[in-house]
Specification:
Ribosomal Protein S5, domain 2; 5 helices; 5 strands; single chain; RNase_P; globular; tRNA binding; 44% helix; 124 residues
Length: 124
C-alpha cells in the first residue's frame, strides 16, 4: 500500500480550492486537474485540512490520521493528473471507517465526473 503524494504549500491548497467540490457528511473533497506546467509531478497529490472549529489538536490529528489511512487504502482510485484536498468535518471522527472509505470513493467518482464536464475545464 503506497501513499499518494502530499500537498504541502498553501499556494497548492489555494489552487485546488478553485476546482470542483463534492460534499459528504464526513468531509468535503476539493479536486482540480493539474495544468501542463506541473507535468513533472506524476501521480495524484492529496492534502488534508482540519480547521480549529472541529476540535483541539488531539481531535484534529485523529481525524487526519483516519483520512490519511483511508486515502492510502484506496490510492488506486485517485486520478493521476489531479490534486485533491480533503476538508474534514467533526463527523469524520465518529463515522465507521468502512463508511468513510465508501464516501471517499463516491466523492472521487463525482469529482471526476464534474472535472470531465467541458464548462468546468474552461473555467479552471
Amino acid at each position: 500500500m503506497s501513499n499518494p503524494a502530499r500537498l504541502k504549500r498553501r499556494s497548492e491548497f489555494k489552487a485546488v480550492a478553485k476546482g470542483v467540490r463534492v460534499h459528504k457528511p464526513g468531509f468535503t473533497l476539493q479536486a482540480r486537474r493539474r495544468d501542463e506546467a506541473n507535468e513533472a509531478v506524476s501521480g495524484p497529490r492529496v492534502g488534508f485540512t482540519v480547521t480549529k472549529k472541529v476540535g483541539n489538536a488531539v481531535v484534529r490529528n485523529r481525524i487526519k490520521r483516519r483520512l490519511r489511512a483511508i486515502a492510502s487504502e484506496i490510492h488506486d482510485e485517485f486520478d493521476s493528473a489531479t490534486d485533491y484536498v480533503i476538508v474534514a468535518r467533526r463527523e469524520a471522527l465518529g463515522e465507521p471507517f468502512a463508511d468513510l472509505g465508501e464516501e471517499l470513493r463516491q466523492a472521487l467518482g463525482a469529482a471526476g465526473a464534474k472535472l470531465d464536464r467541458p464548462e468546468v475545464r474552461k473555467r479552471a
